[in-house]
Amino acid sequence: MAKMKKRRLSWKASNSSQVVGYKLYWSVGGGVGYHSSCVRLNNVTEIVLPDDVAAFTPANGAIEFGITAIDELGNESDMATLFAPYQFSVPEAPQGLKMETMKEFVSIQDPETASQVPEAEVSAPEPDEDESPVRKLQFV
Fold this sequence. Notes:
Low-confidence stretches: none
Radius of gyration: 31 Å
Order of helices and strands: EEEEEE
Strand content: 25-35%
Mean pLDDT: 83
Structural class: mainly beta
Distance between the termini: 51 Å
Largest sheet: 4 strands, antiparallel
Number of helices: 0
């Protein structure tokens, strides 16, 4: 599962006493209006995207948001809008992850027993029969 930064969207409450909630609109790339994707919210003045709005699906590109106040009859106020240049998407995952076995070996010593092994007993491994000796190059 990918990780995406959450965004808090907040607004000042309407001064009208008959307001019972709000309606959030959004449009990818801009041009938000009453025809855009929307969801009705309770009488709250902030939400966390995408957590608090199940219908909001993250998309590539900037998004324009709109918020309206709704009264008890379903009437809506004018729309306050915000153009958010944030990306509500995650990058594509890397592809082609693989691991291969190599001919070379590495000596690994247990850190707990390393101090118990006398230094004289530690020796370099012998090269395999099919391997040629390692040559060290020195650049001048």
